[in-house]
From TrEMBL:
One of its GO terms (molecular function) is GTP binding. Its EC number is 4.1.1.32. Signal peptide: none annotated. Belongs to the phosphoenolpyruvate carboxykinase [GTP] family. GO terms for cellular component: cytosol. GO terms for biological process: cellular response to glucose stimulus; gluconeogenesis; glycerol biosynthetic process from pyruvate; oxaloacetate metabolic process; propionate catabolic process; response to lipid; response to starvation. GTP binds at residues 254-259, 377, 408, 502-505. It comes from Monoglobus pectinilyticus. This is Phosphoenolpyruvate carboxykinase [GTP]. It holds the Pfam family PEPCK_GTP. It is found in: Cytoplasm. Residues 14-222 form the Phosphoenolpyruvate carboxykinase GTP-utilising N-terminal domain. Its cofactor is Mn(2+). Binds 1 Mn(2+) ion per subunit.
């Protein structure tokens, strides 16, 4: 068995011994987080071709990587929640009895790291040492994973110092193996605080601090411990008086979280003094502060794992700026002449001498297909972001004034509406639906129900998760943030987006905050509280009153169809579905038929 240096925590040592015995790596290396160690790993990855060093003048500290053609997105049908009983995982998660799954995985991991190095990455989700942070240790045989985890989380010896001799940690094991999709598994054992990933090298499947820990395991812990782990961006909106209010928003993958989190207000609002500050772009951990009883959020991550295509100076200047140094690009196109990167939507100049995401040398100016994969990504340090919030490292988090749900709905959902109260808001979240995107393997553009944007990420029974939301509302009482629903993706009959989106979404955020502070009116409708069209500021937008009315319209017939779909969806939860959710469905049903 490969030698390894023991640490002062016996639980860690015991676990390491078992994993090393099973995976049989040739050598074992602790990641201490030092720049010299990371630099040596970058050089090694470049020497083997795992990474390509990009143009040092144009993209200092940046690297390029491609994953296998069959390994470019999360794989939901290979993702398992292995609770002791199937009931606990619930009807929308894949489940297998834990000991059976451990046996299956053991066969796959045995000898999986032969001839390779196992890296031990201690990492903290949340600022190191914050009372809200949690520690994981990921074992991996991929330098790419080490370097990405270094950007996405806080890693190294300082984390081991906080863990101490007796601290608990989430056990994360990743073996890249041979990326065989038939034997790919992303498995969570919530009761054991353990995650096992094998036969993939794609980010969402292998950066185990992110969706696996910070959402699936953390949502389970949150239910036990009375807090929430959510698929939410966090932004601060500063008004001309310099006051900042914070909004948390849950949208499914590739539905605009990173974009909204880094929004640049339209010019006329900038001139008035409005600003947006980014706290997080993907995940929020929310807790009730015992001192003031309000809901506070931290971003447990340290970087952005963002969708590259569609990111441009125009659509998301701040995200693009964030990728200008110390960033890893995955599955985008490479410009072979000057070693820079390109993706669809960056600009109108695809590189002529280009390597596409499949690794083929092509003429990018005439190539027919996508040069970058639609789910190609950048991994960028959050501190690169020009609008990173001064509260980004605040261990207490930021107070949340409004929660926003949203998805891609060509019809059905209006631009924005408000829930009547917390219970109704939980129902609005629970009945979210969205068209599928390239972020997960499978068909794109199919409407599916995605409660709170957590369908792929909830670590226990979804019905109990609704119950937990309701419970949190009871605890928050009058301090509960207002809840809204938005839809930037409504389409006209020709299939064009009706709302300009991006920076102009600020106009909707302003209505939301005006509602929170009691400055704006709303009128009740079958589905909730709708803005009066004149309350959405359309200055300089070039959108007519009729167009805005259409964006805010609620077609009862379309909604009635949706209700039938909701009923079917809820039926799978049987008696576990909370009574308050059933009651809200009856109210909606009645409102639509009145
Ligand atoms: N039409 C329209 N498209 C948008 C808007 N905001 C984002 N998009 C597009 O939606 C896609 C995904 O946006 P992101 O902000 O990366 O989505 P995300 O929710 O962060 O995705 P994940 O990182 O997968 O969780 C990109 O192609 C964007 O250009 C908008 O307001 N309107
Ligand atoms: O986890 C990933 O692969 C990327 C991501 O943010 C998502 O899919 O929501
Ligand atoms: Mn994102």
């Amino acid at each position: 068995m490969a030698e390894f240096t023991k640490c002062s925590n016996e639980k860690v040592n015991k676990w390491l011994e078992e994993q090393i015995a099973m995976c049989q790596p040739e050598s074992v290396v602790w990641i201490d987080g030092s720049e010299s160690q990371l630099e040596a790993l970058r050089a090694e990855a470049v020497s083997t071709g795992e990474l390509i060093k990009l143009n040092e003048e144009k993209l200092p500290g940046c690297y390029y990587h491609r994953t296998a053609e069959n390994d470019v997105a999360r794989v939901e049908d290979r993702t398992f929640i292995c609770t002791p009983t199937e009931e606990e995982a619930g009807p929308i998660n894949n489940w297998m009895e834990p000991s059976q799954m451990y046996d299956k995985l053991k066969a796959l991991y045995t000898g999986a790291m032969k001839g390779r190095t196992m890296y031990i990455i201690p990492y903290s989700m949340g600022p190191v040492g914050s009372p809200f942070s949690k520690i994981g240790i990921e074992l991996t045989d991929s330098i790419y994973v080490v370097l990405n985890m270094n950007i996405m989380t806080r890693i190294g010896q300082e984390v081991m110092d906080v863990l101490g001799t007796d601290g608990d940690f989430v056990k994360c094991l990743h073996a890249k193996k041979d990326v065989n999709p038939e034997e790919r598994y992303i498995v969570h054992f919530p009761q054991d605080n353990a995650i096992m990933s094998v036969n993939s090298a794609y980010g969402g499947n292998v950066l185990l601090g992110k969706k696996c820990f910070a959402l699936r395991i953390a949502s389970y812990l949150g239910k036990q411990e009375g807090w929430m782990a959510e698929h939410m961006l966090i932004l601060g909106l500063e008004n001309p008086q310099g006051e900042v209010k914070y909004i948390a928003a849950a949208f499914p993958s590739a539905c605009g979280k990173t974009n909204l989190a880094m929004l640049i207000p339209p010019e006329y609002l900038q001139e008035k003094g409005y600003k947006v500050w980014t706290v997080g772009d993907d995940i929020a951990w929310l807790r009730i502060n015992p001192e003031d009883g309000k809901l506070y959020a931290i971003n447990p991550e340290a970087g952005f794992f963002g969708v590259a295509p569609g990111t441009s100076e125009k659509t998301n200047f701040n995200a693009l700026e964030s990728t200008k140094k110390n960033t890893i690009f995955t599955n985008v196109a490479l410009n072979n002449d000057d070693l820079t990167v390109w993706w669809e939507g960056l600009d109108k100049n695809p590189p002529k001498n280009c390597t596409n995401w499949l690794g083929e040398k092509v003429d990018g100016t005439t190539y027919e297909g996508n040069l970058a994969h639609p789910n190609s990504r950048f991994t960028a340090p959050a501190i690169n972001c020009p609008c990173i919030s001064s509260e980004f490292e605040n261990p207490q988090g930021v107070p949340i004034s409004a929660i926003v749900f949203g998805g891609r709905r060509a019809k059905t959902a209006p631009l924005v509406y408000q829930a009547r109260d917390w219970e109704h808001g939980v129902f609005v979240g629970a009945t979210m639906a969205s068209e599928t995107t390239a972020a997960a393997a499978g068909a794109v553009g199919v409407v599916r129900r995605d409660p709170m944007a957590m369908k792929p990420f909830v670590g226990y029974n979804m019905a109990d998760y609704f119950g937990h939301w309701l419970e949190m509302g009871k605890k928050l009482g009058d301090n509960a943030p207002a809840i809204f629903h938005v839809n930037w993706f409504r389409k006209d009959d020709e299939g064009n987006f009706m709302w300009p989106g991006f920076g102009d979404n600020m106009r909707v955020l302003l209505w939301i905050l005006d509602r929170v502070s009691g400055k704006a009116d709303a009128h009740d409708s079958a589905i909730g509280l709708l803005p009066t069209a004149s309350d959405i500021d359309t200055t300089g937008l070039g959108i007519s009153a009729e167009e805005l009315d259409a964006l805010l319209s609620v077609d009862k017939e379309v909604w009635k169809e949706d209700v039938e779909n909701i009923k079917e969806y809820f039926a799978q939860f049987g008696d576990r579905l909370p009574a308050d959710i059933k009651k809200q469905l009856e109210i909606l049903d009645k409102n639509l038929n009145d």
